[in-house]
Amino acid sequence: MNSFLALRSGKMHPPVPDYRSEYINLKLKQFIRQGNIKTWPLDCVEMICKMKKTGEYGIQVVKVVRGLPDKLDASTHYDKKTGHYAVLINRSRFSYPFQKSSDRRLNFTLAHEIGHIVLEHLILNCKSGSNDKLKYMDEAEADEFAARLLMPRELLCSLNYYSVSQAAAWLNVSNSALICRLNRLNRLDLITSRKVESCTRCGNIRFSAFAEYCGICGHYLPEGRKGIRRIYYPDMVSMDSKKRSLVCINCHTNIANISGEYCPYCGTCIFNLCINEACSYANPAYARSCEMCGKPTGYQKKLTSPCIVTNIADIQPFIW
Ligand SMILES: [Zn+2]
Ligand SMILES: [Zn+2]
Ligand SMILES: [Zn+2]
Ligand SMILES: [Zn+2]
User: Does residue 147 form part of some domain?
Assistant: First the structure.
């Protein structure tokens, strides 16, 4: 039986060497693809329970236990005979759901333990033995895995930092984990960078001058423009400056030069009108919800597969 203990050392590990950094990225990408992870923030309590349920990576036991030494957050054990893992979490360090910055430390700890498993540290140590230097490097790698998993670079670059604690709370990590990651990325400047108005519910950054509601999720805006996420939701169709569609959203015919308000080929309205007849406001091309009343727009209804982008990963690939 080989095991890893997660200690609350609080100090930053040295950077991992380049070739190991690439290996971590490779394993991380596989892990994200296999787990079908598409939206952040991540909750590793849910994630590790799901992994146990499906038996992924050989995780057979995830248990909250009493009596572990206080300085220990969690420990992972590997049985080389069966190839199974057991992850034990210290009850006295366990606070869930995450509320305070210190509670959210558990999320990082579990991501770190998952890192040991995905990077196969325990398997390798069983085969070729281990020494203190190797163990120290393994700890650095598991930390790096956890930081990249919970806080992808592109995601961090797409946040509004009204305060570090607000951004850390949104990410489900402790304030110090976020600062550590920004520091490692050399992007502490993000904390003081310009804020961009965004919807608190969906992160949308596109608003018309008089918008009362978010054009993506329909959230009432007066109190809701200081979101953490910043997401650019693309147009559903191209339009001219008078909000007339240049291509029919239904039959995709070029209708740039037609007169009237309907597509001459299929009869679809050339405006993205609110479906609420009492409102019937002509919305911009990105609007899935009416910016005047929050009800769905006609074009949102028309699309058989609504192109609502719920995650930045759908717009641009993540770079760790
Ligand atoms: Zn560890
Ligand atoms: Zn919204
Ligand atoms: Zn048409
Ligand atoms: Zn409306």
Answer: yes
Question: Does residue 83 lie in a domain region?
Answer: yes
CA atoms within 13 A on the CB side of 222: 2
Q: How far, in Å, from the CA of 270 to the mean position of ligand 3?
A: 8
Mean pLDDT by 10 residues, the chain (320 residues): 55 83 95 91 93 91 88 89 92 81 89 95 76 85 96 95 95 95 96 95 93 96 91 92 95 93 95 95 96 94 55 40
User: How remote is the CA of residue 150 from the centroid of ligand 2, in Å?
Assistant: 23
In a domain, 6, yes or no: yes
H or E element in which residue 7 lies: strand 2-7
* Integer Cα distance of 80 and 2 in angstroms: 8
How many domains does the structure of the chain reveal?
A: 1
Kindly give the interhelix angle for 121-128 and 132-150, rounded to the nearest 10 degrees: 160
Which ligand has an atom closest to residue 254 CA? 3
Q: Which two tokens stand for residue 72?
A: 């220990």
